[in-house]
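Example record

Each entry pairs one chain with its bound ligand, BIS(adenosine)-5'-pentaphosphate.
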Amino acid sequence: MKARAVVLLGAPGAGKGTQARELSRRLSIPQISTGDILRDAVRRQTLLGLQAKAKMEAGELVPDEVVCGIVEERISQPDNEKGFILDGFPRTLAQAEFLARVLRARGQGEPQVLNLGVDRDILLKRLTGRRICTTCGEIYNIYLNPPRQDEVCDKDGTKLLRRADDNEESIRHRLAAYENETQPLIDYYRRQNLLREVDGSRPPEAVSRDVVSSLRRA
Ligand code: AP5
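Structure tokens for the complex follow.
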């Protein structure tokens, strides 16, 4: 059986990370989040982190060659034999074309692409209310999906953090970068008949059911 490559497209706050985590559990294949990899590099102050920090905090995209290098290296690891879920990649046409070349070279064929559609007012609430656990990666929302105890992870008791780019100014830039650079990928994949639309505005469990059934149909 060919390894499957799932791509989750969607605006900042659309729920890519939330759905990728759940799908990874269900399919037993890894989630590859370029945002998480970059944030980890920033935290550890590696060369990559130092290169990416300012761009990320400003809500701008990190250069294609940097992100493509990260993904190529991550995909080549042995835990991806059965497949992987890309969360936050590709985000530009150059990245999408790069991914197509890498998948072809691995004999993996076309990706299964799901677009999580969510209205802008909902996105803003999701982004300003998001809190994350840096120990286990669990994602919360103080308005929509709060932890049992204020600002503390239910699973391991770690104090929850607000992401450095979840402030009004960065969110505005991230949404603009999405509209200018990433939205064109919807047409790119639609033209190739690879795109499935999922209504991402419903509760996470309902979105998750649609994600799974869309992948089965694809
Ligand atoms: P990245 O980490 O990918 O950020 P993003 O695309 O802005 O997306 P988010 O992580 O903000 O949102 P999400 O869709 O994952 O939503 P989540 O599930 O967390 O990238 C960060 C930065 O890194 C970029 O700005 C860029 O600088 C750089 N970067 C990364 N990849 C790059 C690339 N390929 N090229 C260049 N640069 C790159 O959910 C959000 C909130 O909503 C949470 O609070 C959650 O609990 C809640 N929520 C989720 N789903 C639901 C639901 N169904 N109902 C109610 N609440 C929900």
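The chain has a mean pLDDT of 95.
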